[in-house]
Amino acid sequence: MVYVAADQLAEHGFIAIAPDLLSGWVPWRPYGLLRRSAQSDGRREWSATGSGHGRFNAACEYAKTIPSASGKLAVAGFCWGGGQSFRFATNRSDLSAAFVFYGTPPMSAEAMAKIKAPVYGFYAGNDNRVNATIPNATQLMKDAGKMYEPVIYEGAGHGFMRAGEQPIALPANKKAHDDAWSGYLTFSARRRTHRLLPRRVAIRMAAVSAVASRKAIA
User: Deepest of 12, 35, 52, 195, by most Cβ within 10 A of its Cβ?
Assistant: First the structure.
């Protein structure tokens, strides 16, 4: 999903970088070699050391050095990556926006108070675990004077951005995918940013950034 999304963003004129936040492997490591154990190890390391945000920050700094870049940054992610996008907004003050696709938020007022960027959320109607966190996040962001715009797509299931692009997609998932993608591009176009996409499994970062870096930002 992230690899495809990065290519699609590049087609729309954005510099899109999809860093491998969990494994820390070099970009040319064959995708098929990633094991579930590596994903689990990466999640544990992220939780224990915060090293994933260090990798995220490194990707941000790299993006800002690309000659055709505007200097603006935003982050987006899906599922686990969506939650990390929300959390990364609490740790990096120069983001222009954070886009959260069915990810869970930080749950403390202290964390929300650190957010500087608007946060846009895209959620599935049939996703009680994630959606149960939205009211509290909405209240915390409101109390902190922050911008948070969650949208819930009724009838869609968790992971609709992947499921909705399949040939046999359920109508609700396809509609959620199309509407969310349209909204994502609309919000992004307002800010003309780089795009950083966290993901749960390894991708070929070099291939993604090579495609994206040929696109100049207006």
Answer: 195
* Pairing assessment for the beta strands 148-157 and 195-196 based on DSSP bridges: unpaired
Are 2 and 199 contacting, i.e. CB atoms less than 8 angstroms apart?
Answer: yes
Residue 104 neighbours by CB under 8 Å, 6+ apart: 82, 83, 86, 130, 133
Same domain membership, residue 5 and residue 113:
no
Task: Report the catalytic residues.
Answer: 79, 127, 158
Shared-domain flag, residues 117 and 27: no
3-class DSSP string for 50-69: CHHHHHHHHHHHHHHHCCCC
Q: What range does the domain containing 52 cover?
A: 1-60+194-218
**Which pLDDT score, from 0 to 100, does residue 197 have?**
52
Q: What predicted TM-score, i.e. pTM, was given to this entire model?
A: 0.79
Are 202 and 29 in contact, with CB atoms under 8 Å apart? yes
Mean pLDDT of 126-142: 97
pLDDT digits (tens, 9 = 90+) for 72-101: 888 998 998 899 999 999 999 999 999 999
Host H or E run for residue 34: none
Ramachandran assignment for 102, one of left (phi > 0), alpha (psi -120 to 50 degrees), beta (any other):
left
**Where does the pLDDT of residue 5 fall: very low under 50, low under 70, confident under 90, or very high at 90 and above?**
confident
Query: How far apart are the C-alpha atoms of 95 and 29, rounded to whole Å?
Result: 29
Residue 209 lies in a domain: yes
List of residues 6+ apart from 134 with CB closer than 8 A: 105, 121, 123, 150, 152
